[in-house]
Amino acid sequence: MAIGIRELRADLAAHVRRAAAGEPTVVSVAGHPAAALVPLSAMSDDHAGGPQLSSLIAAGALVPPRRADGRVPDRHVTVWGNVRLDRLLREVRG
Predict the structure, then answer these.
(1) Which stretch of DSSP H or E encloses residue 32?
(2) Is 22 strand, coil or helix?
(3) Of 23, 47, 44, 27, which Cα lies nearest the Cα of 35?
(4) Of 12, 4, 11, whose CA–CA distance to 28 is shortest?
(5) Which pLDDT tens digits describe the chain residue by residue (94 residues)?
(6) Kindly report the CA angle at 75 between 71 and 76, in degrees rounded to 5?
(7) Using CA atoms, how far apart are residues 34 and 17, in angstroms rounded to an integer?
(8) How far is residue 85's CA from residue 94's CA, in Å, rounded to a whole number?
(9) What is the distance between the alpha carbons of residues 54 and 61, in angstroms, rounded to a whole number?
């Protein structure tokens, strides 16, 4: 099935249900195919959960973590509204 972006916006839930049931849908923008709604089972394991962190880091979309052990610090930081980020970082970093 092929639909335009306006039709997708008008009834998104129904189109997602159809895709989940196994009916792929091609979405066009300005008359050109732009995306596809497909069931997750039709995607490979690499793409079913979204992009892998390593590929996002390689693409420059993410900065790799400084910690190599994967441990998350135990302390929690209370953040107040209307505070500049540079001041919060200065306080947290001590």
Answers:
(1) strand 32-37
(2) coil
(3) 27
(4) 4
(5) 889 989 989 999 999 899 889 888 899 998 888 888 888 776 654 554 566 777 778 888 778 877 777 776 677 767 777 888 888 888 777 7
(6) 115
(7) 19
(8) 14
(9) 10
> How many Cα atoms occupy the beta-carbon half-sphere of 3 within 13 Å?
19
Separation in Å, CA 70 to CA 6, 49, 75: 43, 20, 15
Spell out the CATH class of 1-41: alpha beta
What residue spans define the domains of the chain? 1-41
User: Which distant-in-sequence residues (6+ apart) come within 8 Å of 5 by Cβ?
Assistant: 27, 28, 29, 34
Contact between residue 48 and residue 40 where contact means Cβ atoms under 8 Å apart: yes
* Residue found by looking up tokens 């995607």 in the block: 43
Q: Which residue has the tokens 């129904």?
A: 14
Q: DSSP 3-state assignment of 93? A: helix
